[in-house]
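Input (Gnk2-homologous domain-containing protein):
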Amino acid sequence: MDRPSWAPLFSHVLITLCFGIAQPQQFCSNKGIFSVSSAYSNNLNLLLSSLPSRMAENGIFYKATVGQGPDKVYALALCRGDLPSEKCYSCVNATSQSIKQQCPNQKEAIMWTDSSCLLRYANRDIFTKMEEIPPFCVSNPNNFSGDFAKFNETLHGLMEKLITQASSGLKFATGYVSFTKPIYGLVQCIPDISESDCRSCLQKGMGEMESCSGGHEGGRILSPSCIVWFDLFRFYEPAGTLDAPLQFPPGPAPANLAQPPSPPSPANVSPPNQTRNKKVIIIAVASLVTLITIICALILWRRMKQKVESKSRQF
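Output:
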């Protein structure tokens, strides 16, 4: 009797937890500061407090301004195109609170949370403009093992098709291509930039990926105007993608997608050996989860320590 392979599933879940969800990516500009009681501070607080509800009303993207002259604040929020509305709201709501904590008095700041939503504000017009700096890099820690030249060729073919689809349409695309393991990709641009700027941002993001995640099983480039992401597991929401199913070339379903189990016979009872084997598997999985969780905690503690030391970095 075939037994399910639990290790790959838990590995993908833990990689996501350790290297994506738990780590907001932010930059706080030092090009200008404001005092707590200033008009700029009041305008910013008004904008940030209203963004979550405005996102719920308008979909995955919203932008607005408050104030006049030097106290005018520009702000925008964007969710990944595959997120359900409730997750989008939760992400923007959490980010609107975190960005004030991380950047308490800077007049310009940007934050990606969970690689799922972007929130940005500034004392200058940031609308309809393609900006690439600062780019955030999040790399899958696993090194790719296999024919890397063929993997790279297949990956670039997939991403180029997604870039073309996104830039000429809804500014968002997802898809996968069959390889030794399926390669999944996602690209997205800020909706208010032009088609040519969107393509340029995504292509430059792929260029950044070479130095960021070359040789790895996955990686993300998060910039102010676009996101580029690939991995060897399905990291986006299948039910929410705008182009599913997208596969290059057409072929069978990916090997790692779970198939519905056959219904068991009511009269069948697991023999003692199978019961013991299940207990051994459960113990092994629990031990693996505990070990990797400890490793993740140490890695996250080290990264947070490095963030604190580099918090004053300019961009």
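The radius of gyration is 22 Å.
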